Amino acid sequence: MKGFEKQVEIIEKKSKFIGYLFACKTTEDVASALQQLRAEHKKATHICYAYSLASPFLEKAVDDGEPGGTAGRPILSVLQKKGLKDVCVFVVRYFGGIKLGAGGLVRMYTKTTSEVLK
Known about the structure:
- 36% of the residues lie in helices and 33% in strands.
- The protein has 3 helices and 5 strands.
């Protein structure tokens, strides 16, 4: 896949989490990356993401159907803690049949984001 800087894959209780790091300076860059990932991962259960843009300053977190605050917010939290700007992290999830619970989802989205930023 073109445009992404790094990719990582983590499996937890049969669910697959694939993290992507993109350099994004505009919301159009984010939309383009999302469109690319949706085309690549047509059978994914969720494509959650967060971004932080420097100028104009804009941050957004998207849960894409996961329980509120369990996906996009943890991704954005990692970006904020690291002080990163003009980046977007996407986490593609393929559900493996075993529910992780809210705490498990937060941990996995946080972990995937941290790993892709290393």
